[in-house]
């Protein structure tokens, strides 16, 4: 499992900082990461939570977040709450306390060691630091920078850290002097690191950061994002249906009349938030605005004196009965189950409110998330023109009553009138809310974060890299060391291949064994070969291969200094097969020498794995001999076990396309993605070349696993559905343990392009029994029926111009070449086949041509491959009695009968041998 480690310097279970972490981490969770979060109890001294065990904090967070913390941190000598508070007070704030620095550095070194050890044990791939520049604890910040440097260097991770300062909030209220004065010489300033991407929430925050650290290069803007929904729509829908609304109890619970206009204020109840302005506003609203109520959502115990002051103010202004202090509600969009009063959340409050208020102090609030949450919920808002209001919202064109603080400290008559007008004019409220909602979705929609993260955190690629080897894996702990060793040991004509020329992209498809840990250890032990580990949460080799190739293609376009005229190749490999030493070099040389879009490898089995099984070995070798002849003629089609594709051609056709099929009532992705991709590329007019010197050894478990179904003609599914039993038991036949969900076809174990799995690498299988003569005949017929339409007919069906090639024409002979070309044109016109991509679209015409020309094609195979190829297998019984003059007609009916799927069962559904 790929792990994201989050660290919040906020030291609270839920806060604006933690909510933003949750929203960003969700993008990683959706990409297959396991998410861990350290709440920072062992960082901040002023929260009195140092080393306190977690209790019920997890219930306030989504269940996919695992609360975690640095192992053995309490054992660091001298590192405790008192020490952190002393350093903050004496050194950071007062500029004295230099005598403390040796203790700071010693403790930081010990903390860094524990950070790295914890990340190693958890298998961390990505780190998110929230408010890490907060100078509360310079010891921990120093340690964090050191740990990032060590861990990144050890694992060759590239930029694996997102370091987000929430608008440098510790610089707000600069008059307090808590952290000294600008430029804060006693704090730990951000450092340029190849492992860290700094993000600010808006351009002003970025500007202020660069004012503080002018040479900081890797900082960009990642705005807070919000889930744009219409909370009022739920209310209207339920009301229209006469049903009991989910939120119907909100007003009743808090004693708010059902028809009273409601202003929502959700914030901390502290003096800086200026809730007194809302109470004055409430008192000044004219009677014509109705029985307006104010709901304040916040912890009344955080600053009890301020809460008491506000209660007294409401009483003195005669509005105490219309001010509700509702306590802390669950955050609006943290993904947290409602944990507030009676299970209510901020989302519930906004669903009931006509307006949301944010009359905060000028220099305290740096972003204004409540404004963004109101916009996203389609609720009009009112606000002060606080210091950063225009930067975040105003300058983008959002519409709202704005209290100008230059006009006074409390709401003016003009401001009160503008609020009253909104309360009274429902149409105006709706128009304003609609406008803001559309604008907000464009600027702060959830997709924004995903796009920025994808842009920021693609690991860099060396300018000399020419190839990315994509290796999908699922539970390959047994095979992976040998596979990675073979990739590391690639050779060129004069010795080891320059490892700057290629990299490995390992796509983990939900492995539950030590696959990822083994890959990480290999990367650490072989720093000369770049190895990237990418998660793919959707099960299936097609999804995994596509993810890896898309990842590599996108990064390859950013190679600084790379020759734009030089081709870049995406290379597919399988984790249960071994590649020969010159595998990559031969592919690279062949692709560079020609213009083909795809280079296809040669495949072979080691004969010692079939000692004592001569009949099975003969069937395998006949298939591979046929393959060598036809691939030399037509270029063949790619197999996931080994092929290379030019990146531009890959992107031209839209990359690997995922097809789905139903298996046992569930959709699973089709296992022939490699074959379908080759068809897509050839159908686009690109060429495929066969590279016989680039060789891959096939794991014999693929044959052993499927042989019982091959000899009965049912391998790889039936009725047109290509599925594959998982290969999980000792690498031998009969492994049906299934994928992660226990099904027999959803995993990556596939003989035709799947990655498989296994308990042993290239297992010894010579002791298994051979086939009987009858079984051997059945196996050969199954294999050749699958092979012939795909490899002798389909290439010319897709590219009829191949028939003009002298070698192809010589293979078929003049008469067959002419008649085959004519029939391809006729069938194409008859079927109006334009796009051969969907699997049934290209199967049907291939099958029809096979039946029409089988005798002649087999004659040519006997002449070119060997007499032992024999004659076509018997016809399906239903075709044997069809009159010869109507044979072509009934072949069409047979091949196009999708209801029975008989033709698909006859030909088989996946590559054999």
From TrEMBL:
Name of the protein in question: Glycosyltransferase
Amino acid composition bias (Gly residues), ranges on this chain: 732-757
Domain Glycosyltransferase 2-like: 468-649
Gene3D superfamilies hit by this protein: Glycogen Phosphorylase B, Spore Coat Polysaccharide Biosynthesis Protein SpsA, Chain A
Transferase keyword on record: yes
Record keywords, A-Z: Transferase
InterPro entries registered for this protein in UniProt: Glyco_trans_1 (IPR001296), Glyco_trans_2-like (IPR001173), Glycosyltransf_2 (IPR050834), Nucleotide-diphossugar_trans (IPR029044)
Region (Disordered): 732-764
């Amino acid at each position: 499992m790929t792990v994201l480690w989050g660290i919040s310097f906020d030291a609270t279970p839920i806060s604006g900082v933690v909510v933003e972490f949750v929203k960003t981490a969700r993008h990683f969770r959706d990409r297959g990461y396991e998410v861990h979060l350290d709440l920072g109890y062992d960082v901040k001294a002023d929260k009195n939570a140092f080393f306190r065990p977690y209790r019920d904090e997890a219930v306030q967070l989504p269940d996919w977040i695992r609360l975690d913390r640095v192992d053995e941190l309490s054992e660091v000598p001298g590192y405790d709450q008192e020490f952190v508070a002393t350093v903050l007070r004496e050194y950071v704030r007062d500029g004295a306390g230099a005598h403390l620095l040796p203790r700071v550095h010693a403790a930081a070194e010990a903390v860094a060691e524990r950070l790295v050890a914890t990340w190693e044990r958890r298998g961390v791939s990505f780190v998110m630091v929230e408010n890490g520049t907060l100078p509360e604890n310079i010891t921990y910040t120093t340690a964090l920078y050191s740990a990032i440097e060590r861990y990144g260097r050890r694992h060759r991770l590239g930029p694996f850290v997102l370091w987000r300062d929430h608008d440098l909030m510790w610089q707000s209220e600069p008059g307090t002097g808590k952290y000294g004065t600008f430029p804060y010489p006693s704090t730990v300033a951000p450092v340029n690191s190849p492992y860290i991407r700094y993000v600010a929430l808006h351009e002003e925050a970025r500007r202020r950061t660069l004012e503080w650290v002018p040479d900081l290069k890797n900082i960009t803007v990642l705005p807070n994002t919000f889930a744009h929904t219409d909370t009022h729509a739920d209310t209207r829908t339920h009301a229209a249906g006469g049903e009991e609304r989910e939120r119907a109890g909100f007003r009743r619970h808090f004693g708010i009349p059902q028809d009273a206009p409601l202003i929502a204020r959700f914030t901390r109840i502290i003096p800086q938030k200026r809730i007194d302005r809302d109470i004055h506003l409430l008192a000044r609203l004219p009677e014509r605005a109705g029985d307006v109520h104010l709901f304040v959502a916040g912890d009344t115990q955080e600053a009890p004196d301020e809460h008491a002051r506000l209660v007294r103010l409401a009483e003195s202004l005669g509005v105490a009965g219309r001010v509700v202090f509702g306590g802390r509600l669950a955050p609006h969009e943290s993904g947290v189950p409602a944990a507030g009063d009676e299970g209510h959340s901020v989302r519930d409050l906004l669903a009931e409110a006509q307006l949301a208020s944010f009359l905060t102090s000028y220099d305290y609030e740096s972003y204004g998330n409540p404004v963004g949450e109101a916009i996203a919920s389609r609720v009009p808002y009112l606000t002060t023109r606080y210091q950063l209001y225009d930067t975040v919202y105003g300058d983008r064109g959002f519409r709202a009553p704005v209290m100008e603080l230059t006009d006074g400290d409390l709401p003016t008559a003009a401001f009160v009138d503008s609020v009253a007008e909104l309360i009274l004019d429902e149409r105006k409220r709706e128009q304003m809310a609609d406008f803001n909602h559309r604008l907000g979705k464009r600027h702060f929609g959830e997709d924004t974060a995903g796009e920025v993260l994808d842009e920021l955190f693609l690991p860099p690629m060396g300018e000399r890299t020419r190839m990315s080897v994509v290796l999908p894996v699922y539970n390959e702990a047994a095979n992976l060391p040998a596979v990675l060793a073979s990739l590391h040991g690639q050779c060129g004509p004069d010795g080891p291949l320059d490892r700057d020329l290629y990299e490995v992209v390992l796509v983990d498809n939900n492995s539950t064994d030590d696959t990822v840990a083994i890959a990480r250890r290999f990367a650490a032990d072989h720093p000369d070969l770049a190895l990237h580990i990418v998660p793919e949460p959707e099960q299936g080799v097609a999804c995994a291969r596509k993810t890896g190739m898309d990842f590599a293609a996108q990064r390859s376009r950013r190679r600084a200094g790379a020759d734009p005229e030089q081709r870049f190749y995406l290379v597919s490999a399988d984790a249960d097969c071994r590649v020969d030493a010159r595998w990559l070099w031969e592919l690279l040389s062949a692709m560079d020498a020609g213009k083909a879009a795809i280079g296809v490898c040669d495949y072979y089995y080691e004969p010692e794995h079939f000692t004592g099984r001569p009949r099975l070995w003969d069937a395998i070798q006949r298939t591979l001999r046929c393959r060598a002849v036809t691939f030399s003629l037509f270029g063949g089609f790619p197999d996931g076990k080994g092929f290379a594709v030019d990146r531009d051609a890959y992107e031209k056709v839209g990359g690997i396309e995922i097809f789905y099929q139903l298996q046992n009532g569930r959709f699973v992705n089709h296992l022939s993605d490699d074959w379908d991709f080759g068809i897509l590329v050839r159908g686009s007019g690109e060429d495929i070349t066969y590279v016989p010197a680039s060789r891959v050894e096939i794991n014999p478990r693929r044959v052993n696993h499927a042989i019982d179904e091959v000899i009965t003609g049912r391998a790889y599914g039936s009725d047109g559905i290509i599925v594959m039993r998982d290969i999980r038991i000792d690498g031998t036949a009969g492994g049906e343990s299934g994928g992660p969900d226990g099904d027999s076809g959803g995993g990556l174990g596939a003989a035709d392009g799947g990655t498989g799995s296994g308990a042993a690498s290239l297992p010894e299988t010579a002791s298994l029994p051979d086939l009987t003569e009858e079984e051997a005949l059945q196996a050969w017929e199954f294999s050749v029926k699958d092979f012939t339409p795909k490899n002798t007919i389909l290439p010319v069906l897709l590219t009829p111009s191949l028939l003009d090639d002298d070698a192809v024409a010589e293979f078929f002979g003049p008469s067959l070449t002419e008649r085959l070309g004519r029939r391809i044109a006729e069938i194409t016109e008859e079927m109006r086949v334009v796009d051969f991509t969907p699997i049934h679209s290209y199967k049907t015409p291939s099958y029809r041509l096979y039946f029409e020309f089988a005798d002649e094609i087999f004659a040519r195979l006997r002449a070119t491959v060997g007499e032992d190829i024999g004659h076509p297998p018997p016809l399906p019984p239903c075709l044997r009695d069809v009159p010869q003059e109507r044979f072509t007609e009934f072949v069409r009916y047979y091949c196009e009968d999708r209801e029975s799927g008989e033709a698909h069962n006859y030909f088989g559904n996946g590559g054999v041998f």
